[in-house]
Amino acid sequence: MTLELIIFIASILFGILLYWRESQGNGVYRFFNKLFNAKELQMPATSKKGFVYQQSLLLRIVFITSLFLVGIVIARFLIPIDIATISLFASMIVGTLVGTYIANFVFKSGEVIDEKSESIEDVFHETIEKGKDFMEDLKEKGEKSFHKTEDKIEEIKEDVKAETKSARDRLKDKGLM
Length: 177
Fold this sequence. Notes:
Layout: H1 2-24, H2 27-36, H3 57-78, H4 86-163, H5 167-174
Helix pairs in contact: 1-4, 3-4
């Protein structure tokens, strides 16, 4: 189990390296494209497509599987020990595939960040300004409502004073005076 885990992690790193290398240049893919296809079917010179770079899932699986198959056949003839089991083979394929998608995600997010960095900065500054305006509005509303409540308290006190009768008036009302 530990050997499979180590090979899986190593194959993820290999997939990232493979994807990065093909994003820099696709000379090997161009060579095989010229070798196998007729002049009319060959890819244009501006295309950056490689074995795993800008390929669909199915073709990535086919190319990665064939790469590891060739590697395992060579390893079987060079080293007579049975290292290449099916579980290791599957771990290498899946790990490399996962590594290519991780590298794709990192490259795409880097491109998006580069494109949107100025607009993100503008949005951030606008948000800060709106927050400052909102805080000022809250302060103004708080002061206004504070003054309104003070005025209402004073009015209530005046009403209470106006409604309360003196002790003499209350005694007269009861008929005791």
